[in-house]
Amino acid sequence: MRFATIALGLTALLGCFLVATLSGEPIAVRYGQGSSHGFLALKTLDGMTIATGESTQVVSRGKVTSRLIFRFKDGSVDDDTTVFTQQGVFRLISDHHIQHGPSFPKPIDFFIDMASGDLTFKAEDGTVSKEHMDLPPDVSNGLPPNLLLNILPTTPETKVAYIAPGKKARLIHLSIRPMGTLPFRVGAFRRKATDFTLHVELGGVAGVVAPMIGKQPSDYHIWLQNGDPPAFVREEGPLYEGGPIWRMEQISPSFR
């Protein structure tokens, strides 16, 4: 199941930074993704539910189409559709991410086409801007949760490219590191989850200045239980620049 998408947290969060990047290699497929349909809740850190999410994933003709949409109680929407292949390695084909409503001070509508290298941004006033970029093969927009399921918890660091959207898009990279474990329970069973931390590396002058002026993006966390295959436990991070830390968890339908 495509339990969530880091693009939700990183897309708006990174848009204001211009940095040098180091591209890595696409992540090898250890656990191929299948068709699925699931549900999530988006909560504040004190447990208040602010949005309900629906995740779908369809595999057809060698392509995987994943969509995660969160509908907020205040009418806001966060909608991300990612298309990728998984023949040996994960490769992004396209990603379309939309955020709008009261919960998002800076609405976005951003589309990535990997084949053409075209990046399309639709502003709130309806203005459409397009630019071309030579994209590395490891662009990961919409993919980090799937990628993490395929990264061994013993791997010290993994770097992937990421496109921060805007009228002038930016190509950056993320550092993914396992940062210890967290105990949790499933019913009467005790388990441990690895905390994978995603850190935005702001190179050059931006990397020096950002922490000084309070602009260093917050780290994003995904907890996975080790196993064959690994299992999603929890995800935390801001969904937009300067936003609060929110928590994503899987939920089950209720018949009450």
Automatic annotation (TrEMBL):
PROSITE patterns cross-referenced by the UniProt entry: PROKAR_LIPOPROTEIN
Taxonomic superkingdom: Bacteria
Name of the featured protein: DUF3108 domain-containing protein
Species name: Tunturiibacter gelidiferens
High-level lineage: Bacteria, Pseudomonadati, Acidobacteriota, Terriglobia, Terriglobales
